[in-house]
Amino acid sequence: MSKVALVVGITGITGSNLAQELLKQGWVTYGLARNPYIRMEGLLPIAADLLNPEPLATAFANIAPTHVFFTSWTRMETEADNIRVNASMVRNLLKALAPQKSVQHMALVTGLKHYLGPFEAYAQQGFLPETPLREEQPRLDIENFYYAQEDEVFAAAARDGFTWSIHRPHTVIGKAVGNQMNLGTTLAVYATICKETGRPFQFPGSEAQWTGLSDVTDARVLAKHLVWASTTESARNEAFNIVNGDYFRWKWLWPRLANWFGVEAKGFDGVIHPLEPELANDAPVWREIAKRHNLLEPNLDKLASAWHTDLDLGRPIEVMTNMSKSRKSGFLEFQNTEESFFDLFTRLRTDRLIP
């Protein structure tokens, strides 16, 4: 039977890279978003709003995916609203697909907030887990929209008889425009502005992040992990961490990133320097850079997600992830993290998103 994939969140970092991997492997691939019309040969777009359940049945009337990959989320003001909205998105989708009885496997992408807590209590005292993070660590005793999304998947799987996998990446490094969590592109834009204005490339985070061990997830590795888990018997009905496989310290990586852009690196100096206020007045600077270099995106907010970069780099503990569970089950992909950043920067330059 042909493998037919439905990628939910096709315009994001994870969704777009996943679709490319699926198409490369010969899958029939549908991509769903409110505006799914991205340039990708072979992709079959579906325009839908998962918060509007009425038209979903019509959208899927003639589409029977065997594998669903859910990579989307919507940011709300409070965690209670995050739970309400993001759980509804999963529930509405799976309810709309249920009559087809075609779904064999559902993969859900969440992240390390599973261990570190939701935005409102992120990495705060009382919610600091032991690292490296391991899949068997229990849920925190606090509401979290990742838990609500998981519970919707579990309930639908029990009802409709499909298998599932949960994927928990660390910070995802890859190209996307308009993404709400985009550390790699945010740092590229920040370095470009530093070069333009003569400001130093100041590390914006905490001492724990500067000196401690960390890891990230290349979107290409995450894509391979999603396909692997959806087609591997031993990965069914399991949750997995997924990162590149190496560790680094920001005090080692930061000067290398600065060198790539030709700017002065400035490390942790005893004070956290959040990026959100640092970039708050730089929208006109970016528009001028975009105009002078004929860049495709003059809107700074479409490229940089300073709030999320501050969340990641401001944590009071080092954060790294154990990958033993995936390795034991047969997933052996590895990606050098420095090259993840440099590959992204090169692609952003090639695609005329940075000069």
UniProtKB/TrEMBL annotation:
<dbReference type="InterPro" id="IPR036291">
    <property type="entry name" value="NAD(P)-bd_dom_sf"/>
</dbReference>
<dbReference type="Pfam" id="PF22917">
    <property type="entry name" value="PRISE"/>
</dbReference>
<dbReference type="InterPro" id="IPR055222">
    <property type="entry name" value="PRISE-like_Rossmann-fold"/>
</dbReference>
<protein>
    <submittedName>
        <fullName>SDR family oxidoreductase</fullName>
    </submittedName>
</protein>
<feature type="domain" description="PRISE-like Rossmann-fold">
    <location>
        <begin position="66"/>
        <end position="355"/>
    </location>
</feature>
